[in-house]
Amino acid sequence: MYRRRLTPRTTIRGALTIAAFSVAALIADLPAANAADTAHYAAERARLIAEIRGYGALDLPAGLDESVLQAIGRVERHRFVPPGAVRDAYANHPLPIGHGQTISQPYVVAKMT
To answer: In angstroms, how far is the first alpha carbon of the chain from the final one?
Structure first.
C-alpha cells in the first residue's frame, strides 16, 4: 500500500486548507460591512499583498506561491483581531487575537506555504 510521505510543506498546506474552510464558515456568520469599509479593507489587502510580493522578490530563491498570495488577499484579517488592533489588521506583522495567541505575520505565512 502506498503511503504519501508527510513533509512540513504538505502538513502546512493541509492545515491551511482546514483553516481556510474554518475562516469561510466564520465569515459567513458575520454581518456584512458597508460599502466604504469593504472598499477600504480591499485596498488595505491589496497594499499588503504588494508589500509581501516586494519582500518575496528579495528572497533567494525568489518567488512566492501565487495561490497563497491570492488566499491571503481574500482573508479579512480585521474580522479576527480585537477591536483595538483593527487599525493594524493589514500590517505585515503578527497581531494578537486573544488568549495569548497571535495571527501570524502575512509574509511568514506566504513564505512557509
So the answer is: 28
Q: What is the mean pLDDT of residues 74-79?
A: 91
Would you say residue 43 has pLDDT above 60?
A: yes
Told to judge if 104 belongs to the known catalytic residues of this protein, a careful annotator would answer yes
In terms of pLDDT, which residue wins out, 35 or 102?
A: 102
Catalytic residue among 42, 47, 104, 112: 104
Tell me the three state secondary structure of residue 98. Answer: strand
Angle between helices 35-58 and 66-74 in degrees, nearest 10: 150
Strand 101-103 and strand 95-98: pairing?
antiparallel
Identify whether the C-beta of residue 88 lies closer than 8 Å to the C-beta of residue 80.
Answer: no
